[in-house]
Design goal:
two-stranded antiparallel ribbon, 13 helices, disordered C terminus, 555 residues, 8 strands, disordered N terminus, alpha+beta
Length: 555
């Protein structure tokens, strides 16, 4: 019975509050992200129902599972990363702030009441009670409207009479005319909350791109180490074959023991190095699993196809179009697209609004108000006496004396504006410097990789020639051992150069704001156009116009 009464009174259960908050906040996040970045997957802060970590802990993932590729690693990292979860929660909480500010401009209901029994000793004397309900609303002009209705009852126990019931109805309105009036000032909390949601959505999107590049970096470093292990294994096998050949020739008296021992010594050294690089690979895999939030002992492997594809065609992200782009184009494109710079520019607009409000606080305060109230006769609660309405009309005036706190607030707002402008300029200059350096690094890394490819070819020819000359008796074992060592170094250096080039290009694209994270992995944003980019020192990002935020609130 008590639960039914609470439900009838409009109480909200924790489950309903959770569901209602999610519907509003998640809906706002999805709307803003789609407006800013186009269609996106539905946003959620709830942990996945069946993550890879959970499957591993339940024993549903074994060593025979297929190796993980980049999309899988990105998904796993997003599922388990504490930082991703925190950034999602920040975005969600910012959306909750918007729902609160919208609520302040809606009709806000309130209701309540009380019942009191009084007496003396063991005798009751009276029972009384009252209740009421109201609706209030803040309008965009700053006006406040209040509608209320109340009822009360009284019964004197001693005389045996029934309850006397009364009611009253009231309405009041107040409107500021000077300080604190006007839509721009009154709606400022809502405007700022809406803009904060845009800023947090941008920040989350840039974080996703930066985080994805970090995942790629860690993945390629593991693959690089695995390639080193493979090269070292092949080198050890080649040295074993050479040692067996030399040993057989030495036993037959056709080769000196010195050359046989040289081959054996290099074989042992190669086996020792193989142990070291295998241990390093295991350590890097463990570090990656820790970063991904997976159990360290999980039997997880990464597909080698990612590196092979990079070798085969360098992937669609790594085409060498940076040679066709001037520094001015790269920087101009970044200045048009960088999300953090857009937010820094918009912070200047925010500071300008705050300064306007601080200046308004120096003005005198004046507001007009009016209220009216009608009461009912006893026991006729629905028949108010409309010909006997009590009313008041007046003006409140507050002269602008003692405004030192407001003066200080205005001066602080001026300084905040100057700082916001300086921060935006500093960030713009930093982007210019970083992009110029990244472009030069990408070009250098690409040229280094091309040189290392040539070095591998030369080293391979050297090995082939040394082996032929050795078989013909025109070279000794040391020549082949040195050629083998040079080939191993060239192969490892070529892999390192390729990965360094890929990561340098990826960092360049990230800081040009050209990356998009999709369920299939990472791709270049399809809407970019080099020819449309502004030159160095060109147009800054456009500030967010609050009128474009499509708020559903109407005031």
């Amino acid at each position: 019975m008590a639960a039914w009464l609470l439900s009838a009174a409009g109480c909200m259960s924790p489950e309903e509050a959770h569901r209602s908050a999610n519907e509003e906040a998640l809906g706002l996040v999805d709307q803003r992200r789609e407006e800013l970045f186009g269609p996106r997957d539905a946003f959620s802060i709830e942990p996945p129902a069946d993550s890879l970590r959970q499957r591993i802990q339940r024993g549903e993932w074994g060593a025979d599972e297929a190796p993980l590729d980049l999309p899988a690693l990105l998904e796993i990292a997003a599922e388990n990363s504490r930082e991703v979860a925190r950034r999602k929660e920040d975005l969600y909480l910012t959306a909750l702030d918007v729902t609160l500010e919208r609520f302040r401009f809606s009709w806000i209901p309130a209701a309540g009441g009380d019942v009191t029994a009084s007496g003396s000793g063991g005798e009751g004397e009276s029972v009384s009670g009252s209740g009421g309900a109201s609706l209030s609303k803040l309008l965009g002009s700053g006006a406040r409207v209040l509608l209320d209705v109340g009822a009360s009852f009284l019964r004197l126990v001693g005389n045996g009479d029934g309850f006397d019931v009364f009611s009253d109805f009231g309405m009041s309105i107040s409107q500021p005319l000077l300080r604190g009036s006007g839509r721009r000032i009154v709606r400022e909390p809502l405007t700022q909350a809406e803009r904060n949601l845009v800023y947090e959505a941008r920040s989350f999107e840039r974080f996703r791109r930066t985080f994805a590049v970090d995942v790629v970096n860690r993945m390629f470093r593991v693959l690089q180490q695995r390639d080193i292990v493979r090269n070292q294994t092949q080198n050890a096998e080649s040295l074993k074959v050479l040692r067996e050949r030399n040993q057989a020739l030495a036993e037959a008296g056709r080769l000196s023991d010195i050359q046989s021992d040289q081959a054996r010594q290099d074989e042992l050294r190669s086996e020792s190095r193989l142990l070291d690089v295998e241990q390093t690979l295991t350590d890097r895999l463990d570090d990656l699993k820790f970063f991904l939030g997976l159990p360290i002992d999980a039997p997880v492997e990464i597909t080698f196809a990612e590196l092979e594809e990079l070798r085969a065609r360098r992937g669609e992200l790594f085409d060498a179009y940076e040679d066709d782009m001037e520094e001015e184009q790269v920087v101009g494109l970044a200045l048009e697209r960088r999300l953090d710079l857009m937010t820094a520019q918009d912070a200047v607009t925010d500071a300008e609004r705050k300064l306007y409000i601080a200046k308004d606080a120096l003005r005198a305060g004046m507001s007009v108000f009016a209220d009216a109230r009608a009461s009912s006769p006893a026991n006729k609660p629905l028949s108010p006496r409309m010909n006997d309405v009590d009313w008041n009309v007046g003006v409140d005036l507050e002269l602008p004396f003692g405004r030192l706190p407001q003066r200080n607030a205005m001066r602080a707002a001026e300084i905040v504006l100057v700082r916001a402008e300086r921060t935006a300029t500093e960030l713009s200059d930093g982007i210019r410097a970083d992009l110029r350096a990244l472009l030069r690094e990408a070009r250098t890394r690409r040229r280094t990789w091309e040189l290392q490819q040539s070095a591998v070819e030369v080293a391979q020819r050297r090995v082939d020639s040394a082996r032929l000359y050795l078989d013909a008796g025109r070279a000794d074992t040391r020549d082949l051992l040195e050629a083998q060592e040079a080939l191993l170094s060239a192969q490892n250096a070529a892999t390192a150069a390729l990965i360094d080039y890929a990561l340098a290009k990826l960092s360049l694209l990230r800081d040009m704001e050209l990356l998009e994270i999709t369920p299939e992995g990472i791709r270049i944003a399809p809407d970019w156009n080099v020819q449309a980019s502004a030159p160095m020192g060109g147009t800054a990002p456009t500030a967010v116009d609050a009128s474009d935020l499509r708020t559903e609130t109407r005031t």
